[in-house]
Specification:
The protein is of the alpha/beta class. It folds into three domains: 1-92, no CATH class; 94-196, no CATH class; 212-294, BRCT domain (Rossmann fold, 3-Layer(aba) Sandwich). The chain has helices at 2-8, 21-25, 29-35, 46-60, 96-101, 111-123, 131-143, 148-166, 174-186, 229-238, 265-273, 280-294; strands spanning 12-14, 71-73, 212-216, 219-220, 226-227, 242-244, 254-257, 277-279. GO terms for molecular function: nucleic acid binding.
Length: 295
């Protein structure tokens, strides 16, 4: 992939010989960082992942490894010392799939299969598979001598690992069900049983006046602007709702989450008690809608 990008600039990338932390640990980056006590807050962003990988490399590097640095030749563009960070140009939201499988182990120890599954993680991160990404996966399979049957088996095992991750709290939410089905479609896996929804993530009607509402997660509005917890609770109070700090069986009517499929402590409690969970956007939309009706 990198070679193709550099070729578009009429430059040539010589990748050298690196040290693969995935092969050394047999773990995806998020799991390896957790095991080695490395901070990966905001992972799946290039700069953060690179820094975390550098820290991981210090702990797992084999001195006997024969490594060579990468080189780029014939690059005529001037060096730009500016680092463009994603958070400086858009509000970053962790992808639902990444959050779900972040700490799930890969279902194999074979480094070739690990490499393919790691590529799948990145390709499926936004739940869209482009033609270039399909080509990249096909080239990777060819490079590792994976047959069509091998790839199909990997896709089945990958989907099974996602389902296992979703079942960690013994609950399948509507969002998780939709996510699993979407991934199955993208992987062209149509002979796999998708687990049914066991807990609804939305209310069955309007939010009632005086409802006790608990907020969880870092909230943003539809434009990506951050909303503080204090502002959310103040807004809820103005709309005639009762904001509360914690979830309990008899003291909470609704949980409002930045991500309704989150595994936060509050969300887990809510699912266990059968308390509905909705997104920040749905909450704001529904409350404003009810407020407009009353005018």
């Amino acid at each position: 992939m990198l070679k193709r990008e550099y070729s578009r600039l009429h430059a040539e990338l010589e990748p050298g010989r690196g040290f693969c932390t995935l092969r050394a640990t047999g773990l995806k980056l998020s799991t390896a960082c957790q095991n080695f006590g490395i901070d990966l807050s905001g992972g799946h962003r290039a700069l953060i992942d690179a820094r975390a990988t550098a820290q991981l490399l210090k702990q797992v590097f084999d001195e006997d490894s024969q490594c060579e640095p990468a080189r780029v030749e014939n690059l005529t563009f001037p060096l730009n010392p500016r680092t463009l960070r994603r958070e400086s140009c858009e509000a970053y939201r962790q992808a639902p799939l990444h959050r779900l499988i972040a700490n799930s182990p890969y279902p194999t120890s074979d480094w070739k299969l690990l490499s393919y599954l790691d590529a799948l993680d990145w390709v499926l991160d936004d739940l869209v598979v482009t033609e270039d990404e399909k080509l990249h996966l096909a080239q990777l399979a060819k490079e590792y001598s994976l047959s069509g049957r091998d790839v199909a088996d990997l896709h089945h095992r990958y989907l099974a690992s996602i389902i296992q991750a979703a079942w960690r709290d013994n609950v399948i939410t509507e969002d998780e069900h939709a996510l699993i089905k979407k991934v199955a479609d993208l992987l062209d896996v149509n002979d796999f049983e998708i687990p049914r929804v066991t807990a609804k993530c939305s209310t069955d009607g309007a939010i009632k006046l005086g409802a006790r509402v608990c907020f969880t997660g870092s909230a943003t509005d539809s434009a990506g602007n951050k909303i503080s917890r204090d502002d959310l609770e103040m807004f809820a109070a103005k709309m005639g709702l009762n904001p509360i700090k914690s979830v309990s069986k008899k003291g909470c009517d609704l949980v409002v989450a930045a991500d309704p499929s989150t595994n936060s402590g509050k969300a887990k409690k809510a699912r266990g008690f059968g308390i509905p969970i909705i997104s920040i956007q749905d909450f704001l939309s529904e409350v404003r809608s009810e407020s407009a009706k009353d005018k």
